[in-house]
Amino acid sequence: MSIASVCVFCGASTGTNPAYREAAVALGRALAERKLTLVYGGGAVGLMGIVADAALAAGGEVIGIIPQSLKDKEIGHSGLTRLEVVDGMHARKARMAELSDAFVALPGGLGTLEELFEVWTWGQLGYHGKPLGLLEVNGFYGQLTAFLDHIVGEGFVREPHRDMLQVSESPQTLLDALDAWQPSVLPKWAEQKPS
Ligand code: AMP
């Protein structure tokens, strides 16, 4: 599959380590250099604003999707190619998913995790066949990926669904992997007969 747009989930904060900011810049720039449209939450704060600014500065196209209720708090970015204001969180996630061919999570907090896991579960159920990636920075996601392996070991997630999430420390390697990904994984219930 050839991707044209990538949704980035990331913190509305910058985190404590400058490495997070640097990774957001590197990803934003890499997206623009590859002529990939960045789709994101539309805010100007935290890593969200940094990834958007980096993509714009490198000549990229950036679409933000922000709920009306958060437009002031997350400071709707005024310099985007397009900022769509929607009714709420559910509409935001649905619209981001609709506009994107792939999803990447940078470091972030609860919102980032929620968005990543929701779109991953949609993929697991076969609602979409779009690739997902985690940009690992400074070991930020090490404990999460270890926990994911634990969940597989305990029999709650099957290996192919775990492997839908690709992990790399390099934006370039990650974007290459997302571009090459084939949706060959069977949905969670596909091979099981109803009891
Ligand atoms: P955080 O990772 O908590 O800093 O949040 C990053 C982004 O996720 C922010 O733009 C939040 O508004 C957004 N967010 C938080 N919760 C949700 C949710 N349930 N659905 C969609 N976006 C969310």
Structure description:
This protein has 195 residues and is of the alpha/beta class. The chain has a single domain, classed as Rossmann fold (3-Layer(aba) Sandwich). It has helices spanning 18-33, 46-57, 89-99, 110-124, 142-153, 159-162, 171-180; strands at 5-9, 37-40, 62-67, 82-86, 102-105, 132-135, 165-168. The chain is globular and about 45 Å long. The relative contact order is 0.16. Bound molecules: adenosine monophosphate. Adenosine monophosphate (AMP) binds at residues 11-13, 41, 43, 48, 70, 74, 89, 92-93, 108-112, 114-115. Adenosine monophosphate binds next to helix 3 and helix 4.
Structural key phrases:
41% helix; alpha/beta; binds adenosine monophosphate; Rossmann fold; 195 residues; 16% strand
